[in-house]
Design goal:
Helix content: 40-55%
Strand order of the largest sheet: 2-1-3-4
Number of helices: 12
Number of strands: 8
Radius of gyration: 21 Å
Length: about 325
């Protein structure tokens, strides 16, 4: 998994130091306002909050921190981001290694009553380690002697996880706005009903599928999803790998799997340039596999939200892709 470089750590430390100084100035004092401030690092949290708030969403200041196609694994906070977090009422983040910067950021919190939700921590025993693949390289895990077990950060790609995490978020929203707690409880129940219905659709597709394997010529952020429905994955890299080019051995391994299982598709994520997938196909026996895209929701922007994108709509689109891949 990608780690913060020494240079990046120094930059973050400087931002925090300057923030600490500026927080003492009147210009940066916490504004007096009726609206509560909620900051979500990534899109799924942002959408879950809005769904639970319902028509009260406009009465809150809700910020999507990682906008403009910034990937969770490559994000570094700006001074403006640190200031927003420092003054918010509710801060929701994933909690994996890519969020190592959060601990230092929270030390600068100007709001002593801030509620913080670490989603990975909230999952407890349901959190899973990153998937490693036989025959596929892994840039960060190294040898067996290098004990470095990483929790898979892509927890939102499980509808089962989404139900649990939305309940945690609803509790936090109710504590912020007790007057509307019953409404949030009702909105949560309705939303969980939709998540459960889609979860059942996924399970039905997986149960009926003649194919139970997904092969990714790409990173693999879908461990939670494949585990939920008993599917077997193969991939070029783990979900948080910084690698962009697969070794000869990895390509040969994946080509052999395509041929052995007579797979008709090769999967990629939404950010892939498809070069690895194309190489696997060109080296395969049939050379006619389709490349299908599963959306890991790591590049969703506010512009997409304005255009109608939601957590449920993207998971519904992923189900259509999965149905084709498992046919």
């Amino acid at each position: 998994m990608k780690r913060i470089s020494k240079f990046s750590a120094i930059i973050i430390a400087l931002i925090l130091a300057v923030t600490a100084v500026l927080s003492g100035c009147d210009l940066f004092e916490r504004p007096v306002a009726d609206k509560k401030s909620i900051i979500c690092t990534i899109f799924p949290q942002y959408d879950w909050v809005r769904q639970i708030l319902g028509d009260s969403a406009d009465e809150m200041n809700i910020t999507l921190l990682l906008d403009n196609n910034i990937d969770l694994h490559n994000y570094q906070p700006s001074m403006d981001d640190i200031m927003k977090i420092s003054n918010c009422d509710l801060f929701i983040y994933v909690g994996g290694e890519s969020d190592d910067w959060v601990e230092d950021a929270l030390k600068q919190a100007a709001n002593p009553d801030m509620v913080v939700i670490n989603l990975l921590e909230s999952l407890g025993d349901d959190a899973k380690l990153e998937e490693l693949f036989d025959g596929a390289e892994d840039d960060d895990h190294g040898s067996e002697d290098d004990e470095h077990d990483e929790y898979d950060e892509h927890i939102w790609l499980s509808l089962k996880n989404a139900k649990k995490l939305c309940a945690v978020i609803a509790d936090a929203l109710s504590s912020l706005d007790a007057d509307n707690a019953e409404k949030y409880k009702s909105n949560l129940a309705e939303y969980i009903g939709k998540l459960s219905a889609l979860d059942s659709e996924y399970q039905a597709v997986a149960d009926a599928a003649p194919v139970k394997t997904l092969l990714f010529g790409d990173r693999f952020p879908f461990r939670y999803l494949t585990d939920d429905y008993g599917l077997t994955p193969h991939a070029a890299f783990s979900g948080c790998s910084a690698e962009t080019e697969a070794s000869f051995e990895t390509i040969i391994y994946l080509v052999a799997k395509v041929n052995e299982l007579n797979l008709k598709t090769v999967m990629v994520t939404e950010s892939s340039d498809k070069k690895i997938a194309e190489k696997i196909i060109s080296e395969s026996r049939e050379k006619n596999q389709k490349i299908l895209v599963l959306d890991s929701m790591q590049s969703v922007t506010l512009k997409d939200v304005t255009g109608g994108a939601s957590y449920l709509s993207i998971m519904q689109s992923n189900l259509a892709v999965l149905t084709q891949a498992l046919a």
